[in-house]
C-alpha cells in the first residue's frame, strides 16, 4: 500500500449534513459538458462558472474493515495549498437515481503524520469508537485524484453545485508500481431547495441528453479497482460438499446458484462500463448458467429450463457486442503504446460503435424483461433448494449423470 503521507495538522471546524446528489457518467467521444451547460440555460437555469480545483482523496480502513462493516468510508481530502478535510461518509444510499449519504466533515490545515495523529473532534471520536481506539492501525486503501470544474446553478426555487470531474483512481502495488483507472463524471449536488427539484432536473437530463446515471460512488469504484470489494453474501443457505453418490440436483443447485450470484454481482460494473471486466465476468456467468441448465435439465422441469435458456441467451447476446468492442479498444491501446501509431480516426470509430452497443446493453439491464427474469430465476433456485422440485429426489446421482454425459461426449467424437 501507499507510504504514509501525513504531516502536522491543525483542527479548524467540524460539521454534519446529509448530501443529496445526482450523478452521471461521461463517455468519449461526445462533449457532454458543453451540451449540459447549454441545456441548463435553455431550461432557464442561471449558470455561473466557478474556480477549477484539484483534489486528492486518500481512503482508509482497518485490516478488519471496521468502518466498511458499519456502513461508512473514511477519507482525507487534500486541496493543494488550501489544507483539506477529514470526512466520514455513509456507504450506499442510492434511490430513484439520487445518492443520499450522511457526512461528518472536519476542516484541516496541513497533513497529519502519522495517521493516528488526527485532531480532536467529531470525526476522530467516531473513528476511535468504531475502531476500538485503534485509529493508528488505519491503512491506506487507494487514492482518488480529481480535476474538478465547478458551476453554480440556480433557479427560482433551488440551487445546485454542478461538478465535471476527471478522475483517476490510483493503487500502489507491492512492487511500487501504480495502477490507474480513469473515468469522467458529472455530479449535481443540491445546495438549497427540495429534493424533488433535483429529482426533476436529473430526470430531464437523463431524458433529454441521454446521460447514463451512475450507480456507484468513487469509493466503491476504488475498492473494486483495488480488488478490495467485499462481495455481499448470498441469502441462500450454503450447501455442503456434494459426493458422487448424492443426487445430481444438489450439484446442479450449487452450480446454478454460484453463477447466478456472480452474474448479479457484476451487474453494476457492466452498467457503468468503467471496468471492462464487469461485462466480461457477467457474460461468462451467463454462459455458465446456460451450460449448467443444459447439463442438469433431466433433473429439472423442462418447461422452466427451456424458458430460462431463451432468456439467458438474450442476456449473453446483449453483453457480447460491448465485450467485442472492449477487446478491440484494449488491443488498439496496446498497439498505440507499442508502435506509436496515429489511430485517432479508428479510435473514434471504435468509441462510437462501443457506445452503440452499450445503449443496447443498458436497454437490456433496465428492462422489465430482465428484472422479471432475475425474479423468476431467484424463485426457481429457492424452489430447487426447498422442495428439490419433486423429480430431483428420484433423479440420477452425480455418478450416473456424469457417466451418461461422458458417454455422449465420447459418442460425438467417434
Q: Key features?
A:
single chain; 414 residues; alpha+beta; eight-stranded antiparallel beta barrel; 12 helices; 45% helix; globular; disordered N terminus
Q: How does this model look, in words?
A:
The protein has 414 residues and is an alpha+beta fold. It is built from twelve helices and eleven strands. The protein has helices at residues 32-42, 66-69, 122-130, 195-209, 218-225, 248-265, 267-272, 276-295, 302-339, 344-365, 368-387, 398-413; strands spanning 9-26, 46-49, 53-61, 72-79, 83-90, 94-95, 98-110, 139-154, 159-172, 178-192, 212-213. It has an eight-stranded antiparallel barrel with strand order 1-7-5-4-3-8-9-10. A hairpin with a 4-residue loop joins β8 (139-154) and β9 (159-172). α6 (248-265) runs antiparallel to α8. The longest helix is centred in the C-terminal third of the chain and has 38 residues, at 302-339. The chain is globular and about 75 Å long. The model is unreliable at 1-13 and 231-236 (pLDDT under 50).
Amino acid at each position: 500500500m501507499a507510504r504514509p503521507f501525513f504531516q502536522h495538522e491543525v483542527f479548524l471546524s467540524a460539521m454534519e449534513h446529509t448530501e443529496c446528489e445526482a450523478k452521471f457518467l461521461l463517455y468519449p467521444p461526445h462533449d457532454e459538458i458543453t451540451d449540459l451547460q447549454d441545456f441548463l440555460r435553455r431550461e432557464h437555469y442561471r449558470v455561473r462558472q466557478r474556480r477549477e480545483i484539484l483534489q486528492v482523496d486518500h481512503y482508509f480502513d482497518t485490516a478488519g474493515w471496521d468502518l466498511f462493516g458499519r456502513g461508512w468510508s473514511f477519507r482525507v481530502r487534500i486541496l493543494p495549498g488550501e489544507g483539506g478535510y477529514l470526512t466520514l461518509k455513509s456507504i450506499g444510499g442510492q434511490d430513484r437515481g439520487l445518492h443520499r449519504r450522511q457526512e461528518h466533515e472536519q476542516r484541516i490545515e496541513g497533513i497529519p503524520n502519522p495517521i493516528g495523529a488526527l485532531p480532536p473532534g467529531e470525526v476522530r471520536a467516531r473513528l476511535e469508537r468504531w475502531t476500538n481506539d485503534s485509529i493508528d492501525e488505519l491503512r491506506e486503501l487507494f487514492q482518488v485524484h480529481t480535476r474538478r470544474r465547478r458551476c453554480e446553478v440556480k433557479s427560482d426555487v433551488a440551487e445546485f453545485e454542478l461538478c465535471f470531474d476527471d478522475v483517476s483512481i490510483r493503487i500502489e502495488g507491492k512492487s511500487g508500481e501504480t495502477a490507474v483507472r480513469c473515468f469522467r463524471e458529472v455530479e449535481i449536488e443540491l445546495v438549497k431547495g427540495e429534493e424533488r427539484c433535483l429529482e426533476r432536473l436529473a430526470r430531464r437530463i437523463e431524458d433529454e441528453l441521454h446521460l447514463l446515471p451512475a450507480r456507484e460512488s468513487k469509493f466503491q469504484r476504488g475498492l473494486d479497482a483495488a480488488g478490495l470489494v467485499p462481495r455481499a453474501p448470498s441469502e441462500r443457505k450454503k450447501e455442503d460438499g456434494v459426493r458422487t453418490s448424492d443426487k445430481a440436483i444438489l450439484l446442479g443447485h450449487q452450480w446454478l446458484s454460484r453463477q447466478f450470484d456472480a452474474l448479479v454481482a457484476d451487474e453494476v460494473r457492466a452498467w457503468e462500463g468503467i471496468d471492462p471486466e464487469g461485462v466480461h465476468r457477467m457474460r461468462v456467468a451467463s454462459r455458465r448458467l446456460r451450460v449448467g441448465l443444459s447439463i442438469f435439465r433431466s433433473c429439472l422441469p423442462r418447461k422452466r429450463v427451456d424458458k430460462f435458456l431463451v432468456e439467458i441467451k438474450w442476456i449473453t447476446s446483449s453483453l457480447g457486442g460491448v465485450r467485442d468492442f472492449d477487446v478491440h479498444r484494449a488491443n488498439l491501446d496496446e498497439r498505440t503504446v507499442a508502435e506509436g501509431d496515429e489511430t485517432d480516426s479508428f479510435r473514434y470509430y471504435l468509441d462510437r460503435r462501443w457506445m452503440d452497443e452499450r445503449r443496447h446493453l443498458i436497454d437490456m439491464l433496465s428492462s422489465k424483461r430482465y428484472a422479471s427474469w432475475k425474479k423468476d430465476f431467484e424463485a426457481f433456485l429457492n424452489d430447487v433448494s426447498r422442495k428439490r422440485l419433486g423429480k430431483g429426489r428420484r433423479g440420477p446421482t452425480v455418478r450416473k449423470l456424469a457417466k451418461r454425459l461422458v458417454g455422449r461426449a465420447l459418442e460425438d467424437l467417434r
